């Protein structure tokens, strides 16, 4: 007998689901009071019924173009038929099995294919469920590697100013954004920072590469002075996402790789947000012609379908744990490590990259997205319109503390999901946008910007 729940869902409107959600769900990275704020200061809460392609639909038929890939995860649209089919097929054979003492085809194939994308330099995939977990795994691997090698003093970590690598306690140690870190500072292990080579800091006559070289000298000085205590240097290659889409030149990565080699410090590339084609190459670090020692992947790797993260490492790191002594192993686990459904979604995602020649297609889309967004540069309050592959951003010079909420609301009213990071407006859309959708997104941003600035406090 049918439960009647589908009929109930169809009968309920946005307000009914909004009321139930506010009573029952504690939303992430959200001051819940903002959802109850009056007027233009309110942070909208939108009940979503379904997704199709680049669009999200609420219970009253309103639609929103997903301009930020639902927190940077959705690469090929919602309800993608090829990823759907792959997951459905996997459901018929194996939904989950523990990966300790067992293995299965999707995990093996995914590990092999990801290693091949690094030309075999990185392998030994360690699976987890989310980006912060991947960060913690990479940090623990680096620390434990040096301990196994008899260099236990190498137990500190280095990161860029403004870095973001997750919000679990271990990941917060290498996250340098006050909003996330300060509240839990007493719980975290201290780490050190070096300047971020933000291309916006270029002085008169300087290029982005000049900024990269200037700040890399400070990295070298730090490593030269303290390498005996530093286990690893972790960074987001080319774009620091949560810091406000801070972009920098690949020259910094080339120099960081050279300095880490010189001073025997691991280089960890956090490609959780910038991997999977976001910057124009499948891995952002490819644009510098280097390979890290440890690579963190998540978000888009499953196409935005299921929680999945992976850490890939060089063979020499793996070999340092390969021993008859269990204490020299890597004692880290997750219940859903290597979940077959998530791995199958990731394999389907990689298939789409190949069959659709996505990286080549995206090169055309990056130009069209830039053209669609370029009119915002004419606003006197707009600064630093910038782009790295399928990531576009600009800064808004306003003292209005409610700007981001005003913009977000106005964008929704213009059928677009675009949620600023403070005063930085950015786009990170799915790769399936057609020309009409690109034009729609550009116009929605312009209209939302006009409304947000006109109603600024």
Please characterize this protein's 3D structure.
The chain is globular and about 60 Å long. The protein has 15 helices and 16 strands. The termini are far apart. The chain is of the alpha/beta class. The protein folds into 2 domains: 5-58 and 357-454, Alpha-Beta Complex (Aspartate Aminotransferase, domain 1); 83-355, Type I PLP-dependent aspartate aminotransferase-like (Major domain) (Aspartate Aminotransferase, domain 2), CATH 3.40.640. 37% of the residues lie in helices and 16% in strands.
For the termini, the CA-CA separation is: 56 Å
Rg from C-alpha positions?
A: 22 Å
Q: Could you state the CATH homologous superfamily of the largest domain?
A: Type I PLP-dependent aspartate aminotransferase-like (Major domain)
CATH fold label of the largest domain: Aspartate Aminotransferase, domain 2
Helix fraction by DSSP (H/I, runs of at least 4): 25-40%
CATH-scheme architecture of the largest domain = 3-Layer(aba) Sandwich
Q: What is the average of the pLDDT values? A: 95
- Helical/strand content category: alpha/beta
Short description:
The protein is built from 15 helices and 16 strands.
């Amino acid at each position: 007998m049918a439960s009647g729940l589908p009929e109930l869902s169809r009968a309920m409107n946005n307000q009914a689901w909004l009321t139930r959600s506010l009573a029952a769900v504690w939303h992430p990275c959200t001051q819940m009071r903002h959802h109850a704020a009056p007027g233009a200061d309110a942070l909208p809460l939108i009940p979503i019924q379904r997704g199709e392609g680049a669009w999200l639909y609420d219970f009253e038929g309103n639609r929103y173009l997903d301009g930020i890939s639902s927190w940077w995860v959705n690469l090929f649209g919602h309800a993608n038929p090829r990823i759907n089919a792959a997951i459905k097929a996997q459901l018929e054979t194996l939904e989950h099995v523990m990966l300790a003492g067992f293995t299965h085809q999707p995990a093996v194939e995914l590990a092999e294919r990801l290693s091949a994308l690094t030309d075999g330099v990185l392998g030994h995939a360690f699976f987890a469920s989310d980006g912060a977990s991947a960060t913690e795994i990479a940090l623990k691997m680096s620390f434990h590697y040096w301990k196994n090698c008899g260099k236990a003093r190498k137990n500190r970590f280095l990161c860029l100013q403004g870095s973001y690598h997750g919000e679990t306690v271990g990941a917060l140690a290498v996250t340098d954004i006050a909003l996330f870190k300060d509240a839990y500072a007493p719980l975290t292990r201290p780490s050190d920072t070096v300047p971020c080579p933000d291309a916006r800091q270029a002085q008169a006559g300087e290029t982005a590469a000049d900024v990269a070289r200037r700040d890399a000298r400070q990295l070298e000085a730090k490593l030269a002075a303290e390498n005996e205590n530093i286990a690893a240097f972790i960074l987001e290659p080319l774009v620091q996402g949560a810091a406000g889409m801070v972009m920098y030149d690949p020259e910094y990565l080339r120099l960081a790789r050279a300095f880490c080699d010189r001073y025997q410090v691991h280089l960890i590339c956090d490609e959780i947000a910038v991997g999977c084609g976001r910057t124009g190459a499948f891995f952002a670090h490819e644009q510098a012609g280097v390979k890290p020692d440890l690579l963190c992947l998540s978000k888009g790797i499953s196409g935005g379908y299921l929680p999945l993260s992976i850490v890939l490492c060089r063979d020499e790191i793996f070999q340092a744990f390969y021993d008859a002594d269990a204490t020299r192993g890597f004692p880290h686990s997750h219940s859903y490590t290597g979940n077959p459904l998530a791995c199958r979604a990731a394999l389907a995602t990689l298939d789409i990259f190949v069959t659709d020649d996505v990286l080549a297609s995206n090169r055309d889309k990056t130009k069209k997205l830039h053209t669609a967004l370029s009119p915002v540069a004419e606003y006197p309050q707009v600064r630093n319109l910038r782009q790295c592959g399928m990531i576009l951003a600009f800064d808004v010079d306003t003292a209005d503390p409610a700007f981001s909420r005003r913009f977000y609301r106005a964008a929704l009213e213009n059928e677009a999901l675009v949620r600023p990071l403070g005063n930085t407006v950015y786009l990170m859309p799915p790769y399936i946008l057609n020309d009409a959708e690109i034009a729609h997104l550009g116009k929605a941003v312009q209209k939302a910007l006009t409304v947000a600035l006109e109603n600024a406090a």
